Amino acid sequence: MRRREFIKLLGGAAGAALWNFEGLAQVRDDRPNIVLIIADDMAWDDCGAYGHRRIRTPNIDKLAAQGMRFTNAFLTASSCSPSRASIITGRYPHGTDAEQLHWPLPVEQRTFVEFLKNAGYWTASAGKWHLGNAVRNRFDVVHEADVSGFQLPTGPDGPAPVMIAPEKSGCERWLSTLRARPKDRPFFLWLAALDPHRDYEQGIIPDPHRPQDVAVPPYLPDVPEVREDLALYYDEIARLDDYVGKVMDELAEQGAEDNTFVLFFSDNGRPFPRDKTTLYDGGIKTPWIVRWPRRVRPRSLCRQLVSSVDIAPTVLALAGLSTPSCFQGRDFSPLLKEPKSKIRDYVFAEDHWHDYEDLGRAVRSLRYKYIRNDYSDLPATPAADVGRSLTFTTMRRLRARGKLNKNQTACFAKPRPAEEFYDTGNDPYELRNLIHDPRHAGALAEHRLALDDWSKRTAFEIPGTRTPDEFDRETGKPLPNRIRPRPSKKDFQKLLSGDSS
Following CA atoms 255, 261, 265, 267 in sequence, which dihedral angle do they give, to the nearest 10 degrees? Predict the structure, then answer.
């Protein structure tokens, strides 16, 4: 019997122990350690490993050189907490009951972490949390980054220890958490940065990026203010990169790097207009780098589609555990051995309330993207932190003077097209909507059908009531109806309906 089969047979926490039954030699737990490194609001191509020539990311680039780089990895949401809820539950956002920003993940949701914990893994989270209180106790330890310095309330179900300290990068506790792990069993780390999330400040790295060196996407105006803003964003990516290097050095120092599966990715895209909180690739496509010396060849490349909903079943498969029926993703670990094989034809994403009301769905194949804007009457207003940025403030001013082109005014336009269809192979920035182009009618019909089928299979529903905006869409100022902290989905629906019971 193979070692992994033996451990699975033992089951539960027993599989993590060292056994000395009479007549049975000691069995070494050989399951891999698992480390997820999660950037906060980093676009898929904003590092050297994905071809960016100006952002200094030597450690992320080294990670890719030593492992496998995925070029078609996508998220299920372009908003922070819904994306993280989807990742940890292995379910699409609308199936988590935490699909709107700041909705806490309900206690009844199952995560892959408790399966690892019950099977003997030591589990820890360090950095940005953003998942609510009900699931803290799925981890042995939670070290939560908090920029405000306020103590967050704990849940009623015996939450894991929470350490709060004013932090800026969100990575400050990564190394101490890794060093504190038990050395006699495998470990799982959820290392979540705050970088490169807004707001930005000058001088956070010794050698800041220069505005003249940035690459401005065509849907943003190429003006000094936007370049300055992008340079500050680059600086935060560089600071994150430094912590990635420190984690990898510590794994090497502990002699743990050979059998540690490391996955680097982002929770959503770049925090600029037409990126974050949108269903364009700038919002839902992510860097995705796997390093696992024992199993993954250096400088390998996978061009197949993978989704963040696939992380949960993959992690359990690596640990020798079966996938529960509630998970909706697919195990992508076969791609680590055969990167040319395929696990899916499509990936799916959705967009919900994030400071402003919105609802949309998308399906992406290797070549095409189909977007359905369910609330097409609303403009694609960027998130509040983007709205108060130097970039968007400048765009408002230029718009008033008629100085923006059609693509740069898209986030102001209403109504939006109810449907959008893009040939991403020939139009990577998704600027030419082909919804009425007869040459692509067949592909359009195929993607419409795929989205309809996914919506039915996963019980996607358009809510009966819309969630009010928390900010004014023109000025960006908070509205009187702003609610903090955000309640659970159930309590929020009662609030909207006027039910006080």
Answer: -110
Strand, helix or coil at 330?
Answer: coil
Side-chain half-sphere of 273: how many Cα atoms within 13 Å?
27
Q: Look at the alpha carbons of 150, 151, 156, 162 in this order and tell me if their dihedral is positive or negative.
A: positive
Helices (H), 342-475: 384-387, 390-400, 441-457
H or E segment to which residue 242 belongs: helix 224-253
**Domains delineated in the chain:** 42-196+210-346 (3.40.720.10), 351-497 (no CATH)
Q: Contact 34/315 with Cβ under 8 angstroms?
A: yes
Cis peptide leading into 40, omega within 30 of 0?
no
CA atoms within 13 A on the CB side of 327: 25
Q: Between 14 and 285, where is the model more confident?
A: 285
What are the C-alpha distances in Å from 373 to residues 86, 270, 335, 356, 484?
21, 21, 32, 14, 27
CA distance 376 to 355: 17
pLDDT, averaged across the chain? 91
- Give the Cα separation of 243 and 204 in Å (integer): 14
Amino acid in position 315: V
pLDDT confidence bin for 489, thresholds 50/70/90? confident
Measuring CA to CA, which residue among 448, 491, 440, 484 is closest to residue 348? 448
* β-pair type (33-39, 187-192): parallel
Q: What percent of the chain shows pLDDT beyond 70?
A: 89
Phi, psi (degrees; rounded to nearest 5) at 424: -70, -20
- Burial class from Cβ neighbours inside 10 Å (0-12, 13-18, 19+) for residue 6 reads middle
493's CB contacts (< 8 A; 6+ apart) are 465
Rounded distance, CA 92 to CA 94, Å?
6
**H-run or E-run covering 420:** strand 419-423
The position carrying tokens 């963040």 is 308
For the chain, report the end-to-end CA distance as a whole number of angstroms. Answer: 58
CA distance 497 to 319: 44
Rounded to whole angstroms, the Cα distance separating 188 from 218 reads 40
> What pLDDT, on a 0 to 100 scale, did the predictor assign at position 151?
37
- DSSP class of residue 46 equals -
